[in-house]
Amino acid sequence: MRLTEKDVRHVATLANLNLSDEEVSHMLQDLDGILAQMDVLAGIDTEGIEPMAQVLLETESAADDTATLRADVERPSLDNEVALRNAPVSGEGYFKVPRVIER
Amino acid sequence: MTRHTITSIREGLRAKQFTAVEIAREALEFAERENPKTNAYLTFSPERALAAAEEVDRKLAAGEDAGALAGVPIAVKDVILTQGVRTTCGSKMLENYIPPYDATAVERIEGAGGIIIGKTNCDEFAMGSSNENSYFGPVRNPVALDRVPGGSSGGSAAVVAQGTAVVSLGSDTGGSIRQPASFCGVVGVTPTYGRVSRYGLVAFASSLDHIGPFARNVRDSATLLEVMAGRDRMDSTSAAAPVPNYTAQLNGDVRGMKIGLPVEYMKHAAGETVDRIYEAVAKLRGMGCEVRDISLPGTDYAIATYYIICTAEASANLERYDGVRYGFRSAESSGSDSGKLTAMYRNTRGEGFGVEVKRRIMLGTYVLSHGYYDAYYLKAQKVRALIARDFTNAFQQVDAVVAPVSPFPAFRIGEKVNDPVSMYLSDIYTITGSLAGIPCMSVPCGTTDAGLPVGLQILCNHFEEQKMFRLAHAFENS
Prior knowledge:
The complex is a heterodimer. Helices cover 39% and strands 4% of the residues of chain A. By secondary structure, chain A is mainly alpha-helical. Chain A has a domain at 1-44: Glu-tRNAGln amidotransferase C subunit, N-terminal domain (Histone, subunit A, Orthogonal Bundle). Residues 58-63 of chain A have low confidence and may be disordered. By secondary structure, chain B is of the alpha/beta class. The two termini of chain B are 26 Å apart. The chains are: A mainly alpha, B alpha/beta. Chains A and B meet through helix 1, helix 2 and helix 3 of A and helix 10, helix 11, helix 12, helix 13 and helix 14 of B.
């Protein structure tokens, strides 16, 4: 095992994910099995290879255009009422969340 | 309805055999009646469909151009936003989400007269290879109802195979269009990365996500892609390269076309799927193509590379589901006085996401976390460059690469659900093309003895969709 339950709980905290004890134990098994498959990468020589963060399209027209920012023109954004329509809890034109400051 | 194509609807409208409204009504009735068999649709959009159909009829009556997709009933995968029509991503998290805007692909389809009749089931947030990860239950394969339709775009493949839509939209991150197309016996196309705008496609892994078409023949898939493709100001990664007239070039000659068969793909492969691929290769030779072995040495590393990159990107993209702006919020922490904000986030995400999504968020968070970033994420990005280079080298020798889509045909529902590693390994033939960002497609190439469809994958170089379609069309008609 390369992972412990403590590692799994730590990662769940980083991911803001509440996991039950049962989920933690399943996750430990699953992640360990998957990470074992990932080890194959360690043996590959990538000396001098640039990381590929994006599919770089080398056609000239694409490069020109994708590098261009749009004109700085004012455009309407979502209406306040429309933007709030899917909110689980809202009021007074705002998204409402549990109180974060003690009175 | 099951026999209609884009072409037959165009001709029927022109000959006044039916109106667009009649076709839309018939399609909706048929789809609603047939859907309990497969669970492929999650939502129907009759109001929107009929309004669009009326507009097509009005244009036709006025002698105006009604567009390349005039009157065609189309289904859209439920990870693609449709204004006013519920878009769930197959997740409890977005069970009641009504998008305030349309995806660019949707806007262009309706602009071309297409009739969106409903939204299709899929693996939750497009994560899966069997459509069993949907909060709304699995989709059954219309070819064999006890089997999966593939995933993640299982619903979109199923509706086209079942005839409850003429064409449909799917999304592909590591094979989510091609694999279900092969399992259901239809055509599925993953275009060049950036060929179709991702605006309004709910993000899974942004450097790998594509929108693409499903159809019952190559011509229809080419028509649909042509409508959607092209630069969009709302997606800075969308490509400006001009969109060729794919359908005009379908009948071109394929004699002398050089085709590569990757030795790494075929070395472990066995069974009826491979028999069908070798028969397809013989057919291609018979058509005058020159087939030779090629090597894609990075193939063995593709699964590890893909699952590191896609989960890392997913863990970042799915951070937005926090119970604040849209979607599910845990009852454990609703209201404004019941606890801390972080508890609300954690309970919401813990309860709102399914098993596979949590697994990928966890894996992605882990590979991006302090101390592991270089060993996993950065390393995977470098290996991705090597895998892309394999294809660059291959396309110096050949015009197209052909391969299986999946190592096996559609499997039984439940067969692989408890074995994530084996499920991931089944993506081996599709993820290499996704990592390289090249266009690839699945075209039917026969069935197994049990009658299960097998797909032939065709891959071409960036922006060479027209060549890919030409080969697929010639193969389909041979």
